[in-house]
Design brief:
Layout: H1 2-30, H2 34-56, H3 59-76, H4 86-104, H5 128-145, H6 150-161, H7 166-173, H8 177-199
Helix pairs in contact: 1-2, 2-3, 2-4, 2-6, 3-4, 4-7, 5-8, 6-7, 6-8, 7-8
Length: 200
């Protein structure tokens, strides 16, 4: 119990350090330091891509969404007042950009999802069959995610995959915490149904 409390404190302290580092970089970017944008991109590109990829369902489109999102960051940084963390602001931009991308661009069907974007790396001592099973499961999950409503999918990805709190998800999506919880519940129910059909 004490150990868990200490781990929680350490995680909170690490998150605070990361948020302070982002805030410093934001200030540098506002003053015209191009290296600050490079550093923010390096720090957040992987998580931003994870959100974009799972929302648009395609590697190339996900990368385009991330690029557009960081262009938006660069253009809009002067209007960022720090009322939320940079991470929350960025995830909001990426989420909305990805949802807009889906609405206005014709995407490939679920059967043509590019699952190679997130290759499963076999852990030491794992058989090729186990690694293949992991890849198959990942592909089934991605396919199922693509068949969940956009709103519910976004909430589930931010909460379950990106590890954001209900409050952070609410801030990113601009909805209440109760609505976040409802969307996550509905997304999980639908995901279970789809995976049961897909995996059998």
């Amino acid at each position: 119990m004490v150990g868990e409390h200490r781990q929680g404190d350490a995680a909170d302290e690490a998150a605070e350090r990361e948020a302070r580092r982002d805030a410093d970089l934001v200030e540098r970017l506002k003053k015209g330091d191009p290296k600050a944008l490079d550093e923010l991109y390096r720090r957040h590109r992987e998580a931003a891509y994870g959100i974009a990829y799972r929302l648009v369902g395609n590697r190339d489109d996900g990368l385009e969404v991330v690029q557009e999102s960081f262009i938006h960051v660069m253009r809009g940084i002067q209007s960022f007042r720090g009322q939320s963390s940079f991470r929350t602001w960025l995830y909001r931009i990426v989420t909305h950009a990805a949802l807009d991308y889906r609405r206005w661009r014709a995407l490939r069907t679920a059967d043509s999802l590019d699952t190679s974007a997130e290759p499963a790396v076999a852990a030491e001592g794992r058989s090729p069959q186990e690694a293949a099973a992991d890849r198959d499961l990942g592909a089934a999950i991605d396919k199922a995610l693509s068949n969940i409503s956009e709103k519910n999918r976004a909430a589930l990805i931010l909460y379950a995959i990106e590890g954001m709190s209900y409050k952070e998800v609410a801030d990113v999506l601009g909805i209440s915490i109760g609505t976040v919880m409802s969307r996550i519940f509905n997304a999980r129910q639908r995901l279970r149904e789809l995976l049961a059909t897909e995996i059998g």
